[in-house]
Amino acid sequence: MTDALPTTAFKILSRADWRATLAEGAYDGSPVDHADGYIHLSAADQLAVTAAKYYAGQDDLMLVEVDLAALGETLIWEPSRGGALFPHIYGPLPLAATRGARALSVSADGDMILSENP
User: Which domain holds residue 45?
Assistant: First the structure.
């Protein structure tokens, strides 16, 4: 791959998990993350498909922007869906590596609906 990798990625999580992250200073991952052994992130161009595939029909979500440079060696880009490289975190996601969060709902059809308010 000759294109430069993105410097930011995104994690979709429940509002409750985001509140716990704010309180604890880190996000330890979802049940799927724990089963796979790493925290799944999506680059901006992967986000819509991730939202539609895994979060359709859900609201009360948060879209968290992650500064990939802040993750250091815990970040590994690995082939996943369709062979595309996805950012994976091997370890917790520290709150200090996040750039902000926005409220998110995903329609039953898989369309993302973002709010300016967290």
Answer: 8-114
